[in-house]
Task: structure prediction
Amino acid sequence: MQDLRAALEGAEVGFVPTMGYLHEGHLSLVRRAREENGTVVVSVFVNPLQFGPNEDYQRYPRDLERDARLARAAGADLLFAPEVAEVYPEGFATRVVLTGGLVERWEGAHRPGHFDGVATVVAKLFNMVRPRRAYFGEKDYQQLQVIRRLVRDLNFPVEVVGVPTVREPDGLALSSRNVYLTPERRAQATVLYRALVAARRVAEAGGTVQEALAAGERVLAEVPEFQPDYFAIVHPETLEPLEAWVPGARGIGAGRFPEVRLIDNLEVYPR
Ligand SMILES: Nc1ncnc2c1ncn2[C@@H]1O[C@H](COP(=O)(O)OP(=O)(O)OP(=O)(O)O)[C@@H](O)[C@H]1O
Ligand SMILES: CC(C)(CO)[C@@H](O)C(=O)[O-]
Ligand code: BAL
Result:
């Protein structure tokens, strides 16, 4: 990859990092990158460093041939799919560690070490691909803010582009992990999105942050099989919980069915 990149000297590279098993959410990132850059690189790498010991690293869905076909059709020029031993060879000993509330809250609290794993691999990928722009989904909203912080803090000459969440017609955010949903769970899986929409409705009707949160929590309680990890209304950049509305306030949530963990977010703000 580094040799290829060197041969592309002068090219404006748009980069879409993924863990593969591509769907329309990923492909919207690739299409956006295609519109804005001369060369588009997509990476597929299931990064062991960002999975906890009891998470789904082993069973994470993989289909590289299908990914290659879909990425090419959406406009990718290069698909970079390294092996684990290539990214983390024997003796690899470096970590990129963020500190403070941005990484300690929410996903950081429920997936210890997760954002260090993400930051480490993204820093490595940026050094290998040397993109001008990099594309991340708003679906992983906290991750997007963590990457923005990483890029500012370590002076990566990369413009981070956040891309809106692509959803199923009933509102469920597309995710590779949705393949774990049985038909019964699939029907229940809109609960998180419906909770976020309920919170937004209260906000738009002039309610307080506390009233909006309560409305969301009532919807979550309708599906007892869904165990929320957190549900909050937060500042859009620091992700600190809000007492009162600020522009761009974001509702964020995640939780678990026995067989799959869901995550979602929505702008929740009185217009
Ligand atoms: N529905 C979506 N809409 C827009 N972007 C998305 C969507 N789903 C994932 N992305 C983005 O695609 C990039 C790669 O994500 P990843 O490969 O982890 O896919 P995923 O579907 O989120 O899988 P996971 O099941 O791990 O959550 C990330 O920047 C992520 O935010
Ligand atoms: C950014 C990323 C590719 C790093 O492994 C991953 O966290 C993802 O797919 O969102
Ligand atoms: N989509 C974010 C990466 C992860 O869940 O590990």
